[in-house]
Design a protein that fits this description.
160 residues, mainly alpha, Four Helix Bundle (Hemerythrin (Met), subunit A), 5 helices, 69% helix
Length: 160
């Protein structure tokens, strides 16, 4: 009985130390959650129509991939920041049904969160983290576009 209790206490201490180490190792000031910007900088994408904004996002996504391949994390960080800022507002003249607001907000916010994390990982020169968040960002793009296309198809429209 005492041996069993000793193992439980040892296991709890190991988990507590490991958990503290993992929690504290990421708190170097750059890994904290970045709040959504409240200032609307000129690069945020307002004033661009849907086609212009999507092309700009694609250009930055390609620049991120290139930066990861050639180990130019400065370019990755810059493009991730641009994507984050572009996602603050929906593009001008974006046509959507009233019920899409909540779903689109989810995709927009997730895109912004992933771009912000990609920016942080690239800024801290953590290649593996930057590559992982680039993949997650790409998956978010594909999922959002699938949703928009599927919803538009159900409505009989022509989505991109």
């Amino acid at each position: 009985m005492v041996v069993q209790q000793h193992w439980r206490i040892t296991a709890l201490l190991v988990f507590a130390v490991a958990g503290s180490w993992f929690a504290l190792s990421g708190l170097n000031g750059q890994d904290r959650v970045v709040p959504i910007p409240v200032n609307r900088p000129p690069r945020a994408g307002r004033g661009q129509d849907v086609d212009q904004l999507m092309q700009a996002k694609l250009d930055h996504a390609q620049r991120i991939l290139r930066g990861l391949v050639v180990h130019d994390l400065g370019a990755v960080k810059e493009s991730a920041e641009a994507l984050k800022l572009m996602s603050i507002d929906p593009p001008r003249a974006w046509k959507h049904k009233p019920g899409d607001d909540e779903v689109y907000e989810h995709f927009r916010t997730e895109f912004m969160r992933l771009a912000a994390r990609l920016e942080l990982e690239a800024g801290a020169e953590r290649m593996a983290g930057a590559a992982w968040f680039q993949q997650q960002l790409t998956a978010a793009c594909v999922t959002c576009h699938d949703y928009i296309r599927d919803e538009d198809h159900k409505a009989g429209g022509n989505a991109r």
